[in-house]
Amino acid sequence: MPSVRRMILGHVMSGLCTKMNRTKKLQGDLLETPMKRCLSTFDITLLGVGHMVGAGIYVLTGAVAHNTAGPGVILSFLLAGIASLLAALCYAEFGARVPKAGSAYVYTYISVGEFWAFVIGWNIILEHMIGAASVARAWSGYVDSLVGGSISNYTRQMMHGYTMGEPLGHFPDFLAGALCLAYAMLLALGVKCSATVNSLLTIVNLAVMALVIGLGITYADISNWSSEKGSFLPFGFGGVLAGAATCFYAFVGFDSIATSGEEARDPGYSIPRATLLSMAIVTIGYVLVGAALTLVVPYYNINPAAALPEAFSSRGIPWAKYAISVGALCGMTTTLFGSLFSLPRTMYAMANDGLLFGFLGHVSERTQVPVFNLAISGSVSALIALLFDLQHLVEFMSIGTFLAYTIVSASVIILRYRPEKITPVPSNAGTPSSLASPPTESADSNSDCNSVTSAESELLDLSEGTGKLKARYIWLANFLGNCKPGNTVAVFVTIYTVGCVSLCPLLILISQTCFSPAWWDYFVVAHVILILIGSLLVIGAHQQNPPTGKFRVPMVPLVPALSILFNVGLMFHLSLLTWLRFLVWMIVGMLIYFLYGIHYSKESASPNSYSILMATSEAGRGAKWGATLRVNQKSDKVPILNDDDYVAH
Length: 649
Hints:
Layout lengths: L1 H20 L19 H12 L2 H15 L3 H25 L5 H9 L2 H33 L3 H10 L14 H15 L5 H25 L17 H12 L7 H5 L7 H30 L10 H8 L3 H35 L18 H17 L2 H27 L16 H4 L8 H15 L17 H4 L6 H25 L7 H22 L17 H14 L4 H25 L10 E9 L2 E10 L8 E2 L8
């Protein structure tokens, strides 16, 4: 009986893993889409710049400089920009490979598997929801600054001296909540000429950034970076790293470039170039604006709520306050529209795949937008903007983004070394002939092997050798064993990621001044670093997929591996309370997936959901192909087929 129970448990766990790893199948030409392919590289570049340059440059710069990094905010933006660029390159490869709307969620579902696609989609929902709320909160702060604090003063009078505690803001922000609802209602009317409007607002925003940089050079006081009024790194390099973890929020919008995959004229050309151009423009802009701000006024005199207008107003340039506020409102408007535009569509994509509740997949026939999703996302974003403080919103948003970027970067490595299987087109739509006729009694092990080899040759004809050891590293097979092509790389990517998770807290602990490290601390760090290097060397010893003419991340696996390391490292610089809130969010997501999504996924009811499980048995001199199981996930029946019934999956 115990053996039977173990067999049943093993079968259940195998079925669960099969469901979690099933991938989304795309039929027909990937370039076919019901959307209009009308966006040029210029349009997509401004789309990315518009979504990145918003509250980050007008509010986050002042908050990080005042509270976390001082003038070292320049280095914080530079580090965050480099880390974001590494992740952006991975997004660009996915965008060129799979030109579909949905960004990382769709890419992961198609390429890696359903479970990780849900994790990324769930975090994208968090990213856009918190992003919309934080931008609305920043928008409200700028308007309040323009009217001399009248709005905040009126709110204090209404609260009769009562204040909310951490992590909530001191006072509820009714204007920010109303702004989310108003923009959601505008989007519910339908979106027309959004690219043109976004481009105009972004150009105004860039012009204001140029004005800020020019005024900063004119009124710069280099003593603000000297020992007279403080130092360049008043909070040390630890403050720079902590600031980089928060500044990462400023670059979040680049994934909107990948979202435009179905509307780009030539996604294979436009998406990679738009990604690089927008990242370069935004990173240079953030660094120069941060330098201008901290040179005009000392970092400790910066007003975190409205840093740029107050800084130039204090230097006797009152008109600059209004010009900067106009640019800030334009920039934050494009960012807010981008978040509220993407959020309901991500929910729709997940619901349309069956991973979220079915009513979230409804689209209005009149406006052709998911109105119900828009109402939910607008209301929840409004509630968050009403109650939570901007700083906590930014940190909470960053942790989900770090996780999504880490998974995407790891996926690029795995896919680069995984054979691209191409299922041969069946001769008829009915049941394969091999299933209709029983095998002959004269079939032997050689015919079995020939049958399997023939099917594999049809599947691997375009990527022969991919995922296998290179000829000069064949000696590693003595240590790695004979694994299926691509599986060894996937295992070592996991080992590398776990090593990063172990290394980053160790380095943080050793760098703390209150902690005196012993010799064995350095010994452990050295061994973890050796494990990371060894993992990359083993991965690099395998053959990659051949070039397809589309954009590919350079220097794989080094660039995606650095992206994983940077993202994991920045995650560990976030506060413990942020991790606890994120844990609650992920628990809710896992309950939804395992209680609903895994059972109602459309991939479980589609013809593509039939999985082929190959069992092997050892006999005589070597391995022999055993029985093939064809699992019908709709009926949960497991009929045992003959060896000749091999069907390419």
